């Protein structure tokens, strides 16, 4: 998954401004206690990070 697709899905799920806030502030257990931003900066694949988002939040099926 490309980062552009990842961020598009984040914006669809959380809205334009809240997506960035979630990525910066919400710690996900599925990412080893890191935020989305930290996991991406550490080199985690966007697809893996997106799967963690799906596992944590109520994401509609069409965005999986």
Could you state the order of secondary-structure elements as H and E?
HHEEHH
What's the total count of β strands?
A: 2
Helical fraction equals 55-70%
Biggest sheet record? 2 strands, antiparallel
Uncertain regions spanning at least 5 consecutive residues:
none
Number of helices: 4
* Shape designation: globular
| Integer average pLDDT | 96
Q: Which sequence of strands runs across the widest sheet?
A: 1-2
Question: Based on helices, strands and strand pairing, what is the structural class?
Answer: mainly alpha
Assembly state of the chains shown: single chain
Distance between the termini: 12 Å
How many structural domains can be distinguished in the coordinates?
1
Strand content bin: 5-15%
Radius of gyration over C-alpha positions, nearest whole angstrom = 10 Å
């Amino acid at each position: 998954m490309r980062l552009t697709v990842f961020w598009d899905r984040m914006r669809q799920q959380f809205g334009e401004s809240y997506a960035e806030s979630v990525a910066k502030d919400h710690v996900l257990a599925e990412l080893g206690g890191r935020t989305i931003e930290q996991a991406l900066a550490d080199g985690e694949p966007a697809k893996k990070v997106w799967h963690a988002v799906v596992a944590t939040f109520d994401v509609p099926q069409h965005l999986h």
